[in-house]
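Data availability (excerpt). The following record was deposited with the supplementary files.
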Amino acid sequence: MTFQKPSHTSTKIHLKALRTNNFKILFALSFTVFINTLSFSQDIPKNGKTINRSLKDGLIKKTDSLSVTAPSEKIQDTIIKDSIKPKKELLETIVKYHAKDYTRFSQKNQKLYLYNEAKIDYGDMNITAGSITIDYNKNTVYAIGITDTVNGYTQKPVFTQAGNVVEPDSIIFNTESQKALIYNSKTEQGEGTVISETTKKENDSVYFVKDAKYTTANNLDDPEYYIKLRKAKIVPGKKIVTGLANLFIYNVPTPLGLPFGFFPQSEKQTSGIIIPSFGEQNDRGYFLQNGGYYFAISDYLDLAVLGDYYTNGSYGIRTETTYSKRYRFRGNIGFRYENLITSELGFPDYAKNTIYNFRWSHSQDSKANPSSRFSASVNLGSSTYFRQSVNQVNSGSFLNNTLASSVSYSKSFQGEPQVNFSLTATHSQNTNTETINMTLPTFQGSVSRMYPFGSKTGSKKGVIQNVNFQYNLRAENRIQTTDSLFFKKEMFDDAKAGFQHSIPLTTNFKLFKYFSASASTSFNEVWTFKTIDKSFDTTSNETITTDIKGFDAFRTYNFSTSIGSTIYGMFNFEKEGEDKKIKAIRHIIRPSISYNINPAFDKYYDTYEGDEIVDADGTTSRDLIEYSRFEGGIFGAPNKNFSSSMGISVSNNLEAKIRDRDSTATEPKKIILLNNLNFSTSYNFAGDSLKWSPVRMSGGTQLFKNKMSVNFNATLDPYALDNNNRRIDKFNVDNGGSLFRLSSASLNASWTLASKKADDKSNKKDKGITENVRSGGRADDLFGVSEDFANQQLSKKEDTESESPSDLYNYKIPWNLRLAYAVNYSNSRRQNEISSHSLMFSGDVELSPKWSIGASSGYDLKNAGFTYTQLRFERDLLSWRMNFSWVPFSDRSSWNFFIGIKSSILQDLKYEKRRQPDVQF
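Predicted structure:
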């Protein structure tokens, strides 16, 4: 590229008189005649060569006898393109330039001067600076900032080309060779910045630097650390290749260095090695943990393969993959396997154990397919995995007692009526008892409600128009097994399968204007493929149960009706001339009475002779025992006894209107005093004794601006106990006691406190808590959080936004505290004891903008001891971070220290030291 003098630049023109030179005019005309005489076309044949005119074109057609003048033939030049390339244009594209103060062109020096907020655009090149000078003779552009006595050196140059941005103190750019010399430049390369005193720009894609600094610090004028590059080659957006390089911390050199280095620079995720953490464990020796390889398979899928190795032979394997497709679905899959060896072979404490865990989460975008949906939440594996795992990532899931999974697919067929069906596979695993319950699968189908007598237009009124029915189908294949038989063929030996069909018929209507009434009946049919037969073996004196395979079914029906209403009560405390704090209290009561009839289906029951019994007269006979062949089925056995019962329930809600603290508010503020308070019981008319069921009470409310949640429940039994602590058909008040006997009660309360500053940041979700939820734990840190500080390559980029520091010290310490209190009381058999009583707490305190501490613990008030405790410390070191986690006591006693760079490109520049728990099998 070269520059020519702009057309609009002002130039002085000197005027002088013109006169004709006759001799020069005659000489020019003579020279023109001479040139035209000797000029030849490029197509003239060589001398002596003749053209054979006897050849005729075979395609010539016979012409008309009338004489026609042949058109003149145009001979095409044999050289289509001239071998001499045309001279390159002086300017390949439009040059745009601008300056705020002035634009001046020097005719003598052939230079263009731009001053104050100068800017030049030429193709993909852009230069902004305080002062720009263009030299037309040398084809160079020189850009510098401007200096004043107030602000100093300002408006430093910014050079942009091919998406690469360079911010130097000054720059010299050659428009012909596209080369440049850049002084004191700062160039962003990926997540880092290259600071160089002198940079040579070779072309659009290659830069050479000497004695440069590479850092990810935010403060580029005084970076807290950098890697000094003696000589380096930079390919923007691709790579940085360097010779000798070592780490400097606050300009102090460290011995950490490399003879050569390669820094990949890419806007997309790339594959690479994951550097492991190292350490030592008492009973397993030295170890390497969480090392492996990351595969950036595509923009929609990735895979990380990690491994652990201990010198005593123990090892572990982890795979983590994440997949996502916008507007369709997203999910992640993880598999963990550990082969743990304790002590050495031949010693009495030698033990070997293999544990595993598989997790899968899949969610579908609601816009992907409105009529069908697929989702998965899987968490299964060894019951002892989270208790025995030595990997730090599982520390927050140590107290998990249940593993649960669900994979479901549902689809709806639009129409009238609408048809829906779903397939679901579920899994529930108790890690204490090691029992596993699975449904493989559960099928549910239904036909939406149909109103045979209802109006097709408008609302439905009356008992007849509101009559509706629907059809429901449920099919299950249920499996119950244990850890030892999981994924073995024996787990299917006791599998149970069955179908349940139900057709409910309901209607609802208004009664006496203030009551809502409903009536319903339901027909149920159950299909099963396995029944039982019972008999008594007199030899062994035991009952023998025999499984009978084959199709069988039973049918039941029932009837129910209910009536209820809503009662509003208002207590007004306002008086004329007074401005009381409590304006009014509103009490809402919703009473309801229901009646249910369940017939006896004793036709599905058989008898068999049991053990011998001897009556008072000495007569020997055998006891007849009733049983149903459908016992043990998925959907149970039909009712044996006739039931006619009445249910009574009352729900309450209390709200208050109080004076708003805001003096500008025109309306009083409404708050909830009691969210719900429910009482329920029932009376069985067909029962021969104990006709009243216990009164169950439950309630809950929220206090302190919904920061505290309280829930409670109790069971009140009206019947007394005999000397053997068994319920008898005698009211407790008639036995010398109170009206009701408190048989059980519980209270749960949770309270979240936080400073205003911490409350504003509460929407930021911690990755450790996310890991807890994926593992089936709590969605808070009351039981601790996962502390795998080094493994950040699978996490999203952290939010690095920070508040601007103030010149004045006025720092309010952000803090938060979470409390959970639970107490349970048992008195069903006069034990009169607190069965469990605990207080859990966790919190975080930000001592300074860079220091924060946290803790999770609890206290068992019944057994007088602390529960699982975890202490956390974190220090923000600007571009670095330091973490320390400590479990001070229990058999999970351990600690973990980590310090490393936040940036993902340099995340392997770290130091980690840990002491892992010595797990006992």
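Summary of structural features: The longest strand covers residues 515-537.
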